[in-house]
Amino acid sequence: MCNKRNEKALNPACLLQTGSTHIYTTEGTSTVDDVFDDTYREKEGKKPPRILVWRNIILMGFLHVGALYGLVLIPSASWLTLGWTAVCYLISALGVTAGAHRLWSHRSYKASVPLRVFLALGNSMAFQNDIYEWARDHRVHHKYSETDADPHNAKRGFFFSHIGWLLVRKHPDVLEKGRKLELGDLRADRVVMFQRRHYKLSVVLLCFLFPTLVPWYFWGESLAVAYFVPGLLRYTVVLNATWLVNSAAHMWGNRPYDKTINPRENPFVALSAIGEGFHNYHHTFPFDYATSEFGCKINITTAFINLMCFLGLARDRKRVSGDMIAARIQRTGDGSHKSG
């Protein structure tokens, strides 16, 4: 049937069901409140002062110093520890990309309880705020992108959109718009709310203790190497890979789908953030589970979701039709589109 929730009352998009994939055939449809609201106007006059959050500044400083020390220790790490670091990187990244982002923020596919539990565990390992808060802020980011109501407004510069937004108090408009979003789907998800209730404990266990104790216990890695390499270094790299989506992917790259918005196609970000760098496409079609026209190309997250569907742990992937993509490229693209 047709989905009636549309941007600007555009014709609803009917779905062609192909297995567990839904193909959208006309523009303007989204399953959540993540469509850009062009009726929002920034308040005139002097901007509110930036209030520094010194706790975050100090903790981020220590974290990055610890990560640099982890780099120094890499030659001392065993191959098993380096492999474990890569596994922890992948799990924590998937907790953000396949979990907090594509599943819970955009509802671009459906996941079984076991898969949701795995993604929630990965999200706690990533330590980037609990799923509820992450998804709320991300929906605000899409709805009010690059305005005062955007939590990491890229128009305030690279540093602010990358990490600075975490070092200052949120703009009042971010808080106001976040409170007005309809988040009933998140509150109704028992996995999301369980993780939210036990978030601090889950972070201690999954982001720090688990990555450290496994190499120390199972193959005798030193505690220092185990803590600073698969622990702090891995965590810091995942953080910065995610932040690059907010910063670099809003500043550098081409805009083949919509030249009127700042988000860009950035292959480096796609590689580091396991598929999240096709950002012009994603902001144009936020409901597409692949966040890219090209499926699994430089997109580990899409390959993972496809595998979960094959195993019966996920279903109902939402996908944009080729005709819709071609029409959008023709109408608003910057002329840089290349097929494949």
UniProtKB/TrEMBL annotation:
Protein name: stearoyl-CoA 9-desaturase
One function term, GO molecular function aspect: iron ion binding
Any GO CC annotation of this UniProt entry: endoplasmic reticulum membrane
One annotated GO biological process: response to fatty acid
Chief location bin: endoplasmic reticulum
Record-stated family: Belongs to the fatty acid desaturase type 1 family.
CDD domains registered for this protein in UniProt: Delta9-FADS-like (cd03505)
Reaction equations catalysed: octadecanoyl-CoA + 2 Fe(II)-[cytochrome b5] + O2 + 2 H(+) = (9Z)-octadecenoyl-CoA + 2 Fe(III)-[cytochrome b5] + 2 H2O
Cofactor: Fe(2+)
Residues in Fatty acid desaturase domain copies: 78-286
Entry's free-text remark on domains: The histidine box domains are involved in binding the catalytic metal ions.
Localization, UniProt: Endoplasmic reticulum membrane
Organism of derivation: Poecilia latipinna (sailfin molly)
Pfam families: FA_desaturase
Lineage top rank: taxon: Eukaryota
Transmembrane segments: 51-72, 78-100, 199-219, 225-245
Membrane topology according to the record: Multi-pass membrane protein
Endoplasmic reticulum found in the keyword field: yes
Keywords recorded for this protein, A-Z: Endoplasmic reticulum, Fatty acid biosynthesis, Fatty acid metabolism, Iron, Lipid biosynthesis, Lipid metabolism, Membrane, Metal-binding, Oxidoreductase, Transmembrane, Transmembrane helix
EC number: 1.14.19.1
Lineage, opening ranks: Eukaryota, Metazoa, Chordata, Craniata, Vertebrata
InterPro entries: Acyl-CoA_DS, FA_desaturase_dom, FADS-1_CS
